[in-house]
Amino acid sequence: MSLLVVGSVALDSVETPFGKAHDVLGGSATFFAASASLLSRVQVVGVVGDGYPMDALKPLERRGVDFAGLERAKGSSFRWRGRYRHDLNFAETLETHLGVFSNFHPKIPPQFRSASFVFLGNIDPRLQLDVLTQVDKPRLVACDTMNFWIESRRPDLVKLLGHVDAITLNDSEARQLTDCANLIKAAKWIMERGPSLVIIKKGEHGAFMFTPESVFFAPAFPLEEVFDPTGAGDSFAGGFMGYLARAGDISDANLRRAVIYGSAMGSFAVEKFSIDRLLEVDAPQLLARVAEFRSLVAFEEEMPA
Amino acid sequence: MSLLVVGSVALDSVETPFGKAHDVLGGSATFFAASASLLSRVQVVGVVGDGYPMDALKPLERRGVDFAGLERAKGSSFRWRGRYRHDLNFAETLETHLGVFSNFHPKIPPQFRSASFVFLGNIDPRLQLDVLTQVDKPRLVACDTMNFWIESRRPDLVKLLGHVDAITLNDSEARQLTDCANLIKAAKWIMERGPSLVIIKKGEHGAFMFTPESVFFAPAFPLEEVFDPTGAGDSFAGGFMGYLARAGDISDANLRRAVIYGSAMGSFAVEKFSIDRLLEVDAPQLLARVAEFRSLVAFEEEMPA
What we know:
The structure is a homodimer.
Chain A: E1 3-6, E2 10-16, E3 19-26, H1 28-36, E4 42-49, H2 58-62, E5 65-73, E6 78-84, E7 91-97, E8 117-120, H3 125-134, E9 140-144, H4 147-152, H5 154-161, E10 166-170, H6 171-178, H7 183-192, E11 197-201, E12 207-210, E13 215-218, H8 232-247, H9 252-269, H10 276-280, H11 283-297
Helix pairs in contact in A: 1-8, 3-5, 6-7, 8-9, 9-11
């Protein structure tokens, strides 16, 4: 089934304890598409400046990503420059240059409007709401957000919650949005305002998926080397939504699997800079990692007499 | 099979955002015994002052805890006073009064020396080593430790590693001991020095069990209210060792189950002050929580076409 993502397509410059990368592919829609395209066709809506290296997107097109909704505007592309030090859970933003992204008004091409699955990447919640007026009746709409919007656009963000089925956010954002330190309470607070699916990401500590009926937990995959954490969250979302779009099934059993596929794609994303590792991964590698996830948490109940 | 614990038997005064408790039962051996005794008979070796409220230990005796190794010495009992604020992961120690514990030299009673499972609670590694000269050939010896011993008794602690089968420690202690930020590398560092089983506890973020062959992860049970985290680690160890002693089986499948039983007992421990909740829990409640752990992480692999 068709999967639409609206978000940023950017150029990242990243410094980690293991190396540096300059002006490499980045942005929420890029990571999302690179991840999801292993599982499903993906439609991208975003904006880049007229100097964006369009050729660099070719490998994504070959994986079935449709950039018909990627606008090219006069001006410079969105650039992010960041650094990770010892604690790879925290990105230090050195520079953000919005460029053409500051005037981004998503326009959904007619052929994308019937998308069954929609992911609203981390952009202004007013734009996320506007996207929803441009699509038909998607089966599942998920959104992401960040502390900046929680602080500056809280009423719009709360309004958005009433119009989405699912939200992904990290633990500190969940606490900030809901003013609940406890994540179960935070998830309930959010579910009361609309989404029936709340995914709270805890970085290296895994992710919770809350629904009104159940709680599911997926650990982060234990890696000896986390090379560059940039894009892990969007790669998670891409794996999650890509799996759902491929299966066309949003039963609890399938949502749980989708969280694991998302976690697996997130674990690949951090093994190299940019989307490099995501582009290498094939289905057998993905299945092997999902099997490793299973072995990581598998146990049989049984109480000896 | 018999299970021996050597550790502190103390009086705790604790302040949390939810209430206060004064001079209640505490100490590593106490939490361990309260937890393990639901699954196995437990033998305790420790020391208390002559004013210790021995009657308060009666409920543990009724659960099959044998205090024949609990010495009563002239002087005051070990007292700890601590506070938890908003972040329940961190205890702020307000006062530590070692009392008779500062001269503790564990003496294992003859009838305890054949114990099959031995847990060396968090005491001076020189004393932990000494205990091992007093027991016959246990099937499995596990130890705990803390930052204080890592800093002040590192050579003895590293020597101890060569004489134990398993160690439990928290993530910051594992990093401090090994100087590896990555927990997989930290576990390998430790395994190279002796233990074939390394359990790294991450508090509210769950626990890893590393063996040379596999990695197992157990989440912490998501609770809406964590009332008092004191003793969670020792209750985890009690559930883990209690399960192993009950089963008399240290296969990988059983070790995984033991980690879950430990996590379940740890999750009960934090629901009330002191060992109060541990003394209430019965086998059906424990089994129900283990089933909830299973549901928390359960997923079926399957990749749609």
